[in-house]
Predict the structure.
Amino acid sequence: MNKPRQSPARNICPPTSSIQPDRAEDWRLHGGFMAASWRLHGGFMAASWRLHGGFMAASWRLHGGFMAASWRLHGGFMAALSASAKN
């Protein structure tokens, strides 16, 4: 006879009614702590990403200018090389 198999998730996360009352309270406290810490963490991340974004925007602009200049120089050098190779 084939018995319906329980999903592994059911074994890992037992229903709340099967958790002892003191354990349920621990989870509620832990959940509240996590919610609060994620809110704080989220605020910090939002601020640091804004700062990081500004820095990246500035450095990419500088980097882009450098790359544009160096590619122009590189292109001129390559053009000169290929012209001298043809002669």
Q: What stands out?
A: The first helix runs from residue 8 to 12.
